[in-house]
Amino acid sequence: MEVLTLLEITAVLWVTYLVVTWWLERGRLSQLTDKTVLITGCDTGFGNLLARRLDQLGLRVFAGCLTEAGVAELRQACSERLQPIQMDVTKTDSVQDAFRLVEQAVGSKGLSKTCLWGLVNNAGILGVMGGTMEWATLEDYQAVLSVNLLGMIDVTKTFLPLIKKSRGRIVNVASGVGRLAMPQGAPYTVSKYGVEAFSDCLRRAMRCFGIKVHIIEPGFFRTPINNQENLLRRLDQTWQRQSPETKTEYGEEFLQAAKDGIVASERFMEDPVLVVDAMDHALCATHPRSRYVVGWDVRFMFMPISWLPTDLGDLALRLVEPETALTPVCCKDGK
To answer: Residue 141 catalytic?
Structure first.
């Protein structure tokens, strides 16, 4: 009887928490037109969609693009409130140039309505994907880390003084694989684990300054970074550069199974607008969440598996993601 009573109390408290949270999260900031936001990685994907969304909402947007084509596309598609700027997050000089441009534009009087309200660290690359982590070189890791993690750190540290003046918000795009390691994309996974750690440290350190830090954890979404044709081509390129010994160890069957896994994943990808909704909420809600888990795969697979004891988690991942259990030819039949 006492056990049932305890369970009932727990259930009531949990439901009450969910209802109160849902009610609080419905509120939106007023005077959004006074807010200025910088977004990195706006050439395509989440960043491009978010830049367009915030522009439509009336915010002033600085959209960082790697390419001139990205700058031109956004300049033509959006209003004069949106200012696309060419920005390479892997180059400190480029980040500093962007900082000077934004600082001059928003002013430096320390008033929330004239300073930078939001920073969205969205720029990212996938790198080597498919196969196994052994196929990735040190250069592969360095290329992904320089954009996804070190670039994010550089941009954040550079623009932090402006965010402090506005007591604004920082939104960092991590990933579901920042919770559950996937050997098919080890460089990307390592970088996103780093994003999680950096963001947690930043949130706890910046709380006393009134700055809110939010983590977005998307699963697999239909964006250019996950384009099937590009993934398959990149996998072939990675395979071709392997040594004859490595190719013999793994075999053509392993390569084909990895390709089949990429093709199969296409049907599970979701609409990227869900991620943009989360970013929008993190920037514009009166009571945003510290962490946004976006996508059925992260919520119902990655997260629960990450909570299991290590050995059980490994077993569960092999069962739900067969491509993580691909066996090289040399390891079959006890060889």
So the answer is: no
